[in-house]
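Cross-posted from the bioinformatics board.
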Amino acid sequence: QSALTQPASVSGSPGQSITISCTGTSSDVGGYNYVSWYQQHPGKAPKLMIYDVSNRPSGVSNRFSGSKSGNTASLTISGLQAEDEADYYCSSYTSSSTSYVFGTGTKVTVL
Amino acid sequence: EVQLVQSGAEVKKPGESLKISCKGSGYSFTSYWIGWVRQMPGKGLEWMGIIYPGDSDTRYSPSFQGQVTISADKSISTAYLQWSSLKASDTAMYYCARQRGDFGGDFDYWGQGTLVTVSS
């Protein structure tokens, strides 16, 4: 099964907002509200940042927000901080295999 | 406190078998799906499969079906990922993670990872 498509890299200056896209199909991102986002710092396990498209787990900063339009989901980080520099992955349920799939990953750089 | 503690790093030769573990604590182990995620060196995350320890219902990604076996022993709150014949391409970090709900597929707690190195 194919991974969801994310930009390889996104960068921004401290305080700015950035948006990471996650493009799939009507069989995954577009068909279900089961999109989640993870943050992964080097050498660390991933951390859940957003679930069910736009919900934040307890403890996650409200600078992180999620949305979806058609077959593309998005993660927006507002008020960018140095600690936000990490890799970010989206994930979605896919009916094509009744399982789940991750995105290709995006490296966020804080300039 | 919810914790998932994975077994230690492994170094194996091609063709050998291996079973790594993931022990859950701090929650009802039988009530949440546990998943396994592969991360090859310098690469992204790959969803391998999940198991419901309550009844051992197991789902696999087509990419991993037949390549690995996911199991669980609810009596000791432990999930497993095993290979019958390792290949060099199985070299990766493997994470276990707890699925937050029944359907969303998102993982809210993660193990620390188990590094598997397969080399002759």
